[in-house]
Amino acid sequence: MYKNKVYKKIKSLLGKRCLNDKLSKVQYSYDATQKMYSPDIVALVENTNEVSEILKIANKYKVPIVPRGWGSGFSGGALNIEGGICLSLEKMDKIVEFDKDNLMVWVEAGLVNYDLQEFLKPYGLFFPPDPSSWKFSTIGGNIAENAGGPRAVKYGVTKNWVNGLEIVLADGTVLNVGSKNIKDVAGYNITDLIIGSEGTLAVVTKALLRVHPISDDKKTIQIVFNGIRAAAEMVNNILNSKIIPTSIEFVDKDAIKTVDDALNVGFPKDAEAILIIEIDGGIYEVEENSKKIKRLCEKDKSIIAFRVAKNEKEADEIWIARRSISPTLKRIADGKLNEDIVVPRSKLPDMIEKTQEIAKKHNLYIVSFGHAGDGNIHTNIMYHTDNNKEIEAAKKAMDEIFSFCLKLGGSITGEHGVGITKQDYLEKQVGSDNIKLFKNIKKAFDPKNILNPHKMRL
Domains in the chain, please, with CATH? Predict the structure, then answer.
């Protein structure tokens, strides 16, 4: 069988870093979706040459190959749906070059986002994309999904900070795309095409990232509302007042209660919603913007509390609570459909209200929180896995949420990706002509369809 030939060839290349025992295959069979698909072989690569050689083998024998970081994705992008090779880049975690003069850094794809931040901090720099999983998600995974995070309001998402990539094509060819030049329009922009492609076009082995100076000052503000629509409307009020915060995070009442029960962080349990706002910049700029936001809030009768963190410790406590919401939702139910819909910011109040209506209709908890400043809300449809009625209700609720989101001109995913969880909805959003184009692009990069097949249904 081809599996034995492929295993022997990869084993001769990697030695003990080629795994096919049962325990190893289980360890690499799941991600944050709670779904499990076992690979036939786990390849722990340490350099680009090994990636290239393995892709040559996979291409020759037409074996599916799925790139993987730390498996923190919510759309199943790192799962081996029909076996094949799990190509783990976790050991490729080095900082290759730090170019302080050009504010850029070359890193390997397996480097964890948080470790990059810690490296940059002594230089007074940071890498702006900060997904909630930043302490364990890799740069390669961030690139595969075009990850965002709370700071996307002001600083954008991953694609805004990637200047170049080292990639390996399906046949093992190694390419460098992009450059250190701020301006570069020579030929097609392959870098941007690869970002967000979920490992279906090429394997990213290294990334050239831009970094940014840490601001002189920042403040964290917590605003508590007695009405959920009022909180959503305040997002636009702030942005229309010529203030661009670093972050504007929305938290609904169920998320407030759940995280406070778990961590006792002092969130007001009688609130309908909370906005967490961070502003950064020069000392004078931060102070003035903080005052502007306070004046806006003084006019809003739906606000029951306004708090500015007094120090870094208080700010950290607020943000730790925000980043802990998703893990604490298990207290509500053991099943979760974690969606990351996006709508134009002006439509955010309508989307949040509709989500509440859908929750009541199906008698479900649907917990909403996320990056309100860029219209990206995480809608978590909770259900008990031993209750078939709830499972069916959750699926219907998801259909209705996606349909209303698209009706508002939104998107089915802002940063989690399509993977296997949103395949049925992709064509509804982009249309059949775009799907045809996607498939032609896929075929040009990967004619034998070995790179992360079964994802996005391409």
Answer: 2-88 (3.30.43.10), 95-213 (3.30.465.10), 217-317 (3.30.70.2190), 332-444 (3.30.70.2740)
